[in-house]
Amino acid sequence: ALGFAFTGLSIGSLIMVPVLTVAISEMGWRAGFVVMGVALAVGIAVPSAIFLRRVPEDMGLLPDGAQPAAATPRPGAAARPPRPEPSWTLRGALRTRTLWLLLIAWVLASFPLTAYFIHVIPYLRGEKEFGNLANVAWTTWFAFAFASKVVWGYVSERIPPRISVAACFVGEAAAVVVLLHVGQSVPMLFLWSVVGGIGHGPFAQLQTLIWADYYGRPFLGTIRGALAPPMVLGGALGPLLAAYMFQQQGSYRMVWILFAALFLAGALLALLAAPPKAREPAPSSSLAPQPSLLGRGGDSRRR
Fold this sequence. Notes:
- The protein is mostly helical.
- It contains 10 helices and no strands.
- The chain has a domain at 87-272: MFS general substrate transporter like domains (Growth Hormone, Chain: A, Up-down Bundle).
- 68% of the residues lie in helices and 0% in strands.
- It is globular and about 55 Å long.
């Protein structure tokens, strides 16, 4: 379900990259920002107001397709008691080693990612002289990110989430390595599009999956809200460092090497982030008390 939901990110990019390319070419960057602002207002605010719901229980549903306790199991299906959903408060989560490993891993990955998005087109259009072909490659990148999201969603339901996160970060690093060796080769340019799109596909959805899987839904907003500032700060500093390094060296080579190393370091930390073992009794929450399968014991995934 997360894979389907997050395809919207890639669909929006697939549409907006060529639209903004034309708008900026024909009317200038100010018009491009106006187009982007209108698209955000219409494409996000309106659908959210119409369709967004807080939790599945608001619609009479249970997470992960779980059935009510009174439901009759399918003929021949093994009776399995529902797994209790983890319910960590922020205070309890902050005491776990897993939270800090995941936080540092995501900060390390956020640091290069924002800079990557900002600097890759100037790198391909300027230093590598691909011109408008760089925009085509960037659109192709988002096409593969879109196509891979559902596949990643299927895979991440069947392997531990920390393995999925580590694989995603390794994919990001591999794409940066390909980018480093693009040269003036068009096939290498589109190889980067394929590797980069597939590697980046699950980045956003895995954040949602692993935090909810490890710490539960009732206090997920509080936990993620408290951890967002370091990740936002990392994302804000990355482009500045990349720009400074480029100005000092006249090349993006060391920038890409650093970014690949940061992605790999994040992958290693994600691998070390085993599910938190102790579970505290949490205060009652506003979520409905029906059983949930969202907390599937971390590495012990529902088969």
